[in-house]
Structures are given as structure tokens and as C-alpha cells.
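Escalation from tier 1.

The customer reports that the assembly of two entities below gives different C-alpha cells on two consecutive runs. Tier 1 could not reproduce it. I'm attaching the input and our single run for tier 2 to review.
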Amino acid sequence: MELNQFTAHELLAKLKNKEVSAEKILLSLQERIHKTEPKVKAYARVGEVENSAANPSALSLLKGLPITIKDNICTAGLTTECCSKILRGFRPPYDATVISKLKENGATIFALKANMDEFAFGSSCENSYFGPTHNPWDLECVPGGSSGGSAAAVASDEAIWALGSDTGGSIRQPASFCGVVGLKPTYGRVSRFGLIAFASSLDQIGPITKDVQDAAILSGIICGHDPRDSTSVNQEVPDYTKSLTGDIKGLKIGIPKEYFVAGLDTEVKSIIEEAIDKLKTLGAFTDPVSLPHTEYAVPVYYIIATAEASSNLARFDGVQYGYRVASDNLIQMYKMTRAQGFGPEAKRRILLGTFALSHGYYDAYYLRALKVRTLIKQDFDKVFQDFDCIVAPTSPTPAFKIGERAQDPLKMYLSDIYTISVNLAGIPAISIPCGFTKKGLPVGLQIMAKPFNEEMLFRVAHTFEQNTDWHKIKPKL
Amino acid sequence: MKYQTVIGLEVHVQLNTKTKAFCGCSTDFGKAPNSNVCPVCLGFPGSLPVYNREALNSAIKLALAFNCQIQEHTKFDRKNYFYPDLPKNYQISQYDLPLSRNGYLDIFTNDTPKRIGITRVHLEEDAGKLIHEAQASLVDFNRTGIPLLEIVSEPDLNSPQEAFDYLTSLKSIIEYLDVSDCDMEKGSLRCDANISLRIQGAKELGVKTELKNMNSFKGVKDALTFEVQRQTKLLETQEVMLQETRLWDVEQGITVSMRTKEGAKDYRYFPDPDLTVFIIDQAMIAGIKTQLPELPQEKMQRFIKEYGLTEADAKILVSTKNDADFAEQCIREYPGKDKKEMANWIIGPLLSEANLRKVKLHELKLDKKELISLIGFVQRQDISHLSAKNVLSQMIDNGKTAQALIKEGNLQQISNTEELAAVIETVIRENVKSVDDFKAGKTNALMYLVGQVMKKSAGKANPKVVGEIIRRRLS
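Tier 1 run:
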């Protein structure tokens, strides 16, 4: 086995025993990238590998272990473009808080940034200015999105582990499509400082890893209060690795009936049902539950998320940084810069959001969406009064073909139907591999818990993982 | 037809906090362009705003001083519009849940009190500054993010003079609170005005004009005065009046149309998701209340009560806090029973010395003890009031003591009747007409005769004694 194929915790053990060095690990990653990247295209830009910002300390936790970062998380001195033309050449002079934390713990920040849908707008990674990423399990399929690059890099062993961001499923859905582990932490659990905002009230950074233990380790590093982010919550971060008990006996798991309706792929459905049976055999109780406002999640999300995005993206105007179309007329400069700098999906969402916030429409759309958001949150609160967690599919289908939904935004938006409610409610959720379709595409199991109960997710996910082999299977590239 | 003028003012005041509203940058004025900046106030991608507690504290202080109701839950909203001085292309401001509402401010116009309603006071961030040069326009972001209070009045002002008095009163209170420099030239206080006319007694408001670009209180008054005339003319000739924004041209003394209402923008306000709702509880309000200083109105009332001053005098003394403190120290240290005596000295000779030197009262280089000593000389009739004023001026100039200056100038008054008798006899002889007038009952004539004696004695004669002698001599 090559070094790049190991999990982070396996490599950390090897580093501790001085069996390997961080340099050797980097080298094996680079060899792998050289070999498979032309097929997978998990990274946004090539040619910056030698520029890795390494800050290893012999005594530190991560001992120089490299990590792959999504292109929307600011890395000081390293190009960060959100895979958009409009941010061309942008090198932030500051690190996102998660990057500072990683560096403090001795991580090497991999200079290549992971590909993504432009500004995290998408579910397929096709909306990148740099072109699509390919699913390592089937190169004709999408890796999911928007953190498709991070998930594909981890799945193809082009990364040891990675950070993504999740606004409506952007970590969990690609994790599901690529057969890896992806966690969306509780809103406020991880600092958003340095995460280039898509929808500020929904965005959260989270880990994409090869197994649950890695996700627990990485969460322990990136979680925590940050005075630079007013929405981050000042609550102690537990040692998540202590949740990896392998015991779920007696836990009460809710199965939301609204997640098993028309639109759910039959093959995915049966794989999920098998996974639920597995949880039962491991000692958990399951019961059907109802999240009655589920059907409103997609429309509510597309109003709130686009409204916030329309304002968040206003700053990309060619004045201070990034792409600019010069003109002797200010308005013309704004218009041309934004017309040429943004891709079609970014423009669509800016228009949608601008409309939703416009005078005369605000009450009917944005305000109403906020109210329904509260109802969606209450659905979860109610269930969590009686249940320890909720289990459901991560996505209604396995990975779809590149180009298949690109022309049909509505169909594309529906691929997040099972992940969006979690963001609206602000709760944590994890996606773990739980089987494969006949065509060999991975399927993800989603576990949701109440706010700040990531420990529950790790406990259930880890127990399932330790009793199955899905996470050990690697794509043939 | 008689028209009523209706004016509402929108005042922006920069708070004098050490750091900006949502980041740690300095708010120092006059620094090299773009030196007080960071990723947050430059609106760089991924940066996030964080409340400045000091700014919120100052804002609440001011709102309380303006008798406003404080909102228990206040939130910040984004006001979206594109402009190069606004790096995020939205301004963090407050929309439907402002920090405070429903306050008032008492003003005096020609000594008539009037209560002006304050619609709201809210906190927002300032924008940057554009500098237009021949080749390009440049942006200085030093000002970007400085905490700004918007104070909106009700349309309760009915004349340009009332608007002027409102601004004076508002500035006085803010200076007392020490939350802003209130310097219109430096831009730390800015004022826009809404003005319309309606037929006297009408209920509905007329078509309003928004006036901008005034850079002094006088400018506000002048622009409003011009606008009253312009609008009156339009109404009288029954011309169509457009709702518009007009700019004050100080050079020409006219207002010029900038845009009409058709150009009004939709700011697409919505709650800023980067900032959480801010809760101002009763304990916080109570805490801030204890930090409130005595405000001009209260101080004025106290001066009247404690020191027996007239309302007019007290009003002059309290207009700025430092001067009021200076005056009060003088009055307190003054040993005489009649405190008005000292107040008269401050409002009279002292204030004119200050005005002459273009400084504030409290900035005069004057030892209070020496001032008291000087007044003592006058009261003991050792020197005349006139001489004393000269001595005061010299004291400020060279810092010498009152006693030394009186001696140097040989200003000791002549109260000795024998010494005065000869001069008085000469004056009586030389002014037969005035003597006759006095005898005929014209008391003014006595004043004239005393004046002549003062003149002949080079101001050293004691006018009271002189008056007595002449009266006795002629009756």
C-alpha cells in the first residue's frame, strides 16, 4: 500500500513511530496526483504543488501531515478563487481561522486547492470556472458538489483528508457520491472567518475524510469559538475521538417518512434500508418519525440562500481585487466585470436573490421563507425530544452523469432535497458510505443529530463503519 | 396665501470610539490614505464584522440623552447599493429594529421653548472617501467602517432658525456626552434636511425636497431659507413641484437639483446574517444611565437655582460643557454672596476677551484666584470697572497678578472727596447747560457730568463718589 492510501490516523501513528516522514507522504501524494489527476481533475489549478505552506512542528498533533482545502477557504499567500473567474489571481493576505488552527496543530496546507462549483453554487462540480471534476468511481459521472473536488481527491487518494464547506449539502452529497465520510457541523460550531461566503446563515466548514475516526480528529481541530465570527458559539469542544465507542445499544433512531417518497432511487432506497437494518442488529431501536415541513425545504432554501448570496457577492466588482474589465465609466466597469466574471449559475442565483429581496417582494418571499425555516427547525426539535438521531439517505440518487442535469437547474436543485433541511435547521449531520449500486457507485447514509451533538454522529457512524467494509473499498483508477 | 414651513433633519454623527464599528482599525483622522484598514473594513472575501461594544455603548448613551426608547432587541441590516466607497457594496445599518426610537429634544428659538420629536437614532458604518483626480478617481478607505449615528427628527421644525437652534442644541448635548467631535468641517457631523411647505393649517404635507451638501449650521440655515423662498415662489405661481434631492451651492447661495424621485433606489434591506441580534437589557441601560453626565438643560436649571442666575445668563454659560465647568468653578470659588457678580464678569468681559482671542472661555490663560482678586478690587472701589477690564485683558496677555497691574498702571481709584472736589468744580463750570438740565430734572445730565469727571481724571475717579458729590453740590 502506498502512503497516500492510508487514513490520517494511520499516518499519524506512522509519523509518531517515525516509520515515515511528512515529506514522504507529500511525495506519494504528488506521485498519485501526477498519475490520476488528469482523469479526476479534483484540483482547481495545477502547478503550485511546490508552494505548499508547511508549518510542521515535531511536537505538534499533525506532524506535517498534508491537508487539502476547498478553493473557497482563504489560505494566506495561496491562490483562493472560489473557482470563479471574477476572483482571478486572488491571494488572500490572511488565513481562515480553520487554516490557522490547522497550522497551529502542525498541518501542511496543500498548495493545490480543491475544485468546486463556482462560489459553492451547485451539486455537481460542473459549475467550476476550471471545468468539472470527475467521479473516481465512474469518470463519466459527477463527484457531487459543491465540495466535489475535496471528495474526489479523498476518494482517489489524491488527498489524505480535506476540508469542504456545506451550505445545503455541499459536503455530504459529494461524500455520498464519492464513497467517503463528510460532516456538516452544527451552525456556529466552526468559525466562518475566512470562508468566502455563499449564504452566511447556512455555511459551515467541515471535514471530508476516509473514515469516521479521521473526521472526529479533524473536527476536534477546526471546531471552537472564534471572536472574529459573531455567529460562532462559545461552547467547549469535546474530545470527539472519545465518542468512537463502537456501541449504539439502546439508541433511539428516527426514520423520517418524508425522506422515503417518490423521487428516491429504488436501489438507493434498498441500500439505505439494509443499513438501517444493520443499525438495528447493532442494538439500536428505530421508529418512523415525521418532519412535516420537509417539502418546503428546497424552495425556502433557494430564497434564503440566494438572497444572502446576492448581497455577499456584491463585493466582487472589480474595484479592489480579482478580475476587472477596465472602462472609463464606473457603471460600465461594474457591469462588464460582473457579466464576464461570473458564470451562468452565479448569475442565476444573484438574480433570484436580488428579486427575492426587492421592494414589494420581500414579505412574500424572504420574510415568509424565514418563517417556514423556523417551522422546519421545530420539526427537528420535536423529533429530537424522543430520538437520539435521525437516519436517512444523503441523496435520492447515486452520482449522475456529467452534463445530465446541467441544463435543468430544477432537477439539479432536487439532488439536495435530503440535505438542505439540516442547514436550515442549523443541526449537524454526517454522510458515511453504506453500500454500492449494481453499477458500482457509492451510496451514502446520512445521520442527523441535535445542535452541538456531533458526538452522537461520530458514535453511530463509527459503530456502523466498524461493522461494515464499505469504507475500505477503493475506486480503480 | 400663507404657508407653513415643515422641516425634518437627518443628522449623521461619527462616534469618537478608538476603533471602527466592526473591526479593530483605528479611527484616527488625517492619517495617510488607506492606512487605517484591514480585511474586514475593506470587505475582503471571507472577512466578518464583529460588534464594537464601545460604539453600542456610546449610541445608547446618546439615545438616552435624547429621551429615546431603547429597543430591547436590536439588529443590523444590510443596505445594498453599489458605490466604490462602499467596499462590500452594502452598508451595515439598521432598518426596522433601530437601536432607539421616539425621543425628543428641547430647543429655544428667541427664548421660546419648543419640543422637537426624534423619530429614531440608529447605528451604522461610515463609507470611504472618493478623491477625484484628472486621470482617475481614488478611494480612501480610512473612514470606512467608522461608527456613525443617524439621528432623524420628526418634521417638527417650522423655520430655518428652528433648524439652526435644533442643531446647536443637538451638538451641545453630544459634546456633553463626549461621544463625538461634532466637527462639520472634518465631516464628523453631517446634516441633510427635508423641507416642504403647506398652506397654513393644512394637514397634509407638501411635496418635499431633500437638501444635501451643507457643511456648516449656517449653511443649513441658509439653504433652508433659500428653499423656503424657492418653494413659496413655485406654489404662488402654481408650478409643478417635484420631489427631488437638491444640493446646496455655498458659493452661489442657491440649491441645485441633483435627482428626482424617479431615481429613488431600492436598497433591498435584510438582516445581516453575519451579526446576531443584540440584546440591550434593563441592567445594561441602567449601567449606561449612570454614565450620563448632567446635560445642558439640567445644568441650566441648577445654575438658576443654586447660583440665582437669570435663565438667559445660565443658558449662555451651559452651551458647552468645558465652559460651563470653568464658569462653575469660578462661581464656586468666588467668596462674595451674590454669585451673579461673578457670572456677569464671565458673560461680559471674560467672554468678550475669549471671543477677541477666538478661543473658548475655558481656554483663556487666566488664574481663577486672580480673577476673584480683581473683582475684589472693583468691589472695594479701589479701581473702576473700566480699569478692571483693562487689567483683565493684560492679565490674560502677560499672566501678571491683578495687584501688580493696578500698581504698575497707577490705577488706584480716587475716592478722596477733597482730591475730586477741584476737578468737579471745573466740570460744573465748563458744562453750564448740563447743570441746568440736571436742575430741571433730567437725570441723564448727571451721568454726562460724571463722565466728564472720569475723563479728566483719566478714569481714576470713583464714579459713585463723583456722582454723590455732584448731586449734593447741585441740589
